[in-house]
Amino acid sequence: MSRRTPPPGDGRRAVATDDVVATAAQARGLPRPPLLVLEPLAAFLDAHRIGSGPIDARPIGDGHSNVTYGLRRGDAHVVLRRPPRPPLPPSAHDVVREARLQRALAGHARVPEILAICDDESILGVPFYVMGHVAGAVAGPTLPPALDAPGQRGRFGAELVDALAELHAVDVETAGLGGFGRGAGYLARQLRRFRGLWAQYATRDLPDLDRTARWLEEHLPDSGPATLVHGDYRLGNVVFERSDELRLAAILDWELATLGDPLADLGYLTATWAEPGDDETPMLALSAATRLPGFSSRDDLRERYARRTGRDLERLAWHETLATWKAAIFLECSYSRYLAGSTDDPYFGTLAEGVPQLARAAARRIAAG
């Protein structure tokens, strides 16, 4: 079994020497657990008839939460998703739940095919799942040339909104997801959960986040009927394909999905949608491509969603503030893992200043609204 470190400039993150190892014996000799152990992984893939022969594993995507690897094995091209190294926030990174949700959503929403789910931690030390590779590309900090075509840039926003409206229209009972979460009280639970995460993982005092939390609680809006919500719906978490017309092929990264207020998804999308002249934050940096000429504006996204769903967006500014506040806290959790040495991701090193930037951005939303 083999792996190759991607050559410089190929658009993939480099593989650290202890990220991927061949055998369990090699893993036991490392100071921290590897992300992939190829020998037991090959046996698991054999059992599920996924390819044959050596595994070529490469990290893919711009995600900085769960770990995603592209696997090539014979004629098979699949994607493996697993949690990052510990320490992990409680209830986060439940990849088995994420995979089962996507399996239930097949035919109801734009999801990849789930090929195998593993909750046996003896293989990689954590649960993981394997899904089919979705042809296409992901836009984010840059716009891949394969997705760029004259007159097509406006379709990124249109397709994101249309796919989100489809998701929010899923009949959860028909999809077998009626017990997937508690829709009532979703926003209040989000505030409690993220306050708890901040109390547990904060590495410094940020009064802007405390001030924003108080404002969010004092202005908590009423929610309409609950729908399935993605929880991390942004440009970098979807795959686009281009033939005659650009199309959103699949929504990825479902770890935060539950039943709740659909405007939380729209607020997160618009709060992370970069426009020319915006102050830079870590979240806007992940979608910097949307500053290019021809992309939809945030107002375009809001208006299209309102037309597609008929929902009242009067309180959307509250949801956008919630999104910015949550992003700051979730990234502080990641920054604490970086300080603990459990991740080498250089993006997390930028959060020394990036999290305070988000805290200030959240406070500015309060002042503006």
Structure characterization notes:
The chain is of the alpha+beta class. It is 38% helix and 13% strand. The protein folds into two domains: 20-132, Phosphorylase Kinase, domain 1; 145-368, Aminoglycoside 3'-phosphotransferase, Chain: A, domain 2 (Alpha-Beta Complex), CATH 3.90.1200. It has helices at residues 24-28, 38-47, 95-105, 154-168, 186-201, 207-218, 263-271, 282-285, 298-309, 316-339, 346-349, 351-368, and strands spanning 20-21, 36-37, 56-59, 67-73, 76-82, 114-118, 128-132, 227-229, 238-242, 246-251, 258-260. It has a five-stranded antiparallel β-sheet with strand order 3-4-5-7-6, covered by helices on one side. Strand 1 (20-21), helix 1 (24-28) and strand 2 (36-37) form a beta-alpha-beta unit. Helix 6 (207-218) runs antiparallel to helix 10 (316-339). The model is unreliable at 1-13 (pLDDT under 50).
CATH superfamily of the largest domain: Aminoglycoside phosphotransferase (APH), C-terminal lobe
Radius of gyration: 20 Å
**CATH C-level category of the largest domain:** Alpha Beta
Strand order of the largest sheet: 3-4-5-7-6
What portion of residues is helical? Answer: 25-40%
CATH topology term of the largest domain: Aminoglycoside 3'-phosphotransferase, Chain: A, domain 2
User: How many domain units?
Assistant: 2
Describe the main β-sheet briefly: 5 strands, antiparallel
Q: What's the number of helices?
A: 12
Distance between the termini: 57 Å
Q: Supply the helix-strand structural class.
A: alpha+beta
Q: So, CATH architecture of the largest domain?
A: Alpha-Beta Complex
pLDDT averaged over residues: 91
Segments where pLDDT lies below 50 for 5+ residues? 1-13
Task: Tell me how many strands there are.
Answer: 11
Shape: globular
